[in-house]
Amino acid sequence: MANVIVIGAQWGDEGKGKITDLLSRSADVVVRYQGGVNAGHTIVVKDQTFKLHLIPSGILYPKTECIIGCGTVIDPEVLLRELDQLKELGISTRNLLISETAHVTMPYHRLIDQASEERRGSHKIGTTGRGIGPTYADKSERIGIRMLDLMDQQGLHEQLEWTINYKNVILEKLYNLPPLDPQEVIDEYLGYAERLRPYVVDTSLKIYDAVRRRRNILFEGAQGTLLDLDHGTYPYVTSSNPVAGGACVGTGLGPTMIDRVIGVAKAYTTRVGEGPFPTEIHGEAGEHLCSRGAEVGTTTGRQRRCGWFDAVIGRYAVRINGMDCLAITKLDVLDELEEIKVCVAYEIDGENCEHFPRNARQFARCKPVYKTLPGWRVSTSDCRSLEDLPGKALNYLKFLAELMEVPIAIVSLGASRDQTIIVEDPIHGPKRALLHPETTSASLLSA
Ligand code: GDP
Ligand code: IMO
Ligand code: MG
User: Fold this and answer.
1) Is the pLDDT of residue 257 over 70?
2) What is the pTM of this model?
3) Which of 144, 311, 355, 424 could form an S-S bond across to 429 if both were Cys, CB 3.0 to 4.6 Å?
């Protein structure tokens, strides 16, 4: 039995969907704990591609229970579309449960998200425009609508009438937008409520019950460590807590019941939206990574910015998440490069800096200090064990593991399930000796 959190170690889109799907094979329950339809998790099974926004990536396994936890925000229209699409593809969704205390994204959230981005002009965050920030803001302001409110017809009427009139002042006066008709929104959302009702329960009870029955629970993070509201590159972040700690708050499970944390990182780095990105490549190598890695946003279709692997933020992600091991994805994307750079430290105003600076202005001034490694220039996509990898690719992985002081348990070399090397059992293998760094380096990337 193990309860495992899978988190993104960079700025999102690390391949969490693929890794969660892979690990779901031995999971009884898979839980999303934060984020909303800003997430886009891709799973490729043979010739089928699934793009999930809210439904946990364990859904493809018919016996696995999938839970959308209380820390998420739910856009019912998108969720219902996702349910319909899965059903059309013959995937059963009867094992899905939704937290009754998850907050609901309303039309005014989407409108305010988009209008406020426009108003910010050059200060925009580059959000997905899906209403995520405004939904979490209303949660903090204590005027949010939760799933259980949606299920209460009379209560919803009263609550939404007041809230929509309040939001209409903002829409009209601040953003020059037409007001929403409260009755229209209420009717629309009551329709969603009827379809979602069978799924809505107290999921914290279900999760606790699964723990007591010694089930294997997988917590699937959305976004990534550097997009975390508290620990990321604020203000260029999302409005939830993707870090491992978020899994407890976002599900209602105590930290003593978590066994380990697996970080997912690309063999290089990408970022969508605005904000500083020290290792970003403006030029040919960046375009090469972008096209070979098909770096186009799963949710918004925006082109992702590409850069070299950044071990400074990598080390930071290891620390903030208490990471036990890493899954390195998209190694195959580097196959054709003659040389590959890795950022080992930053230089800020002429000073060496080995830690991620928390001040966004300072972070924007960081210049990467690179170590250049030779490329391997052969295809790795058919490699299925460490022995199959070219020596230079293995050296590259060893270098990353040493820099980050965390073992690499999984290497991914393509989007499909079988394009994977399991170096060490990420769930039942040895835990990282956190407080004894002298014991770690010898066992890094142990074959
Ligand atoms: P997530 O949000 O972290 O789940 O990641 P996304 O699904 O948004 O983006 C990752 C993309 O890379 C998807 O299109 C995956 O199918 C693809 N992918 C995942 N792992 C690999 C890999 O090892 N190699 C390649 N070439 N593609 C991968
Ligand atoms: P997955 O789960 C990559 C980014 C947006 C923007 C910032 C804030 O697929 O890894 P938001 O709409 O959340 O208010 O936008 O966060 N962002 C993501 N980037 N992957 C994601 O999810 C993201 N979700 C949000 O591009 O910069
Ligand atoms: Mg994604």
Assistant:
1) yes
2) 0.96
3) 424
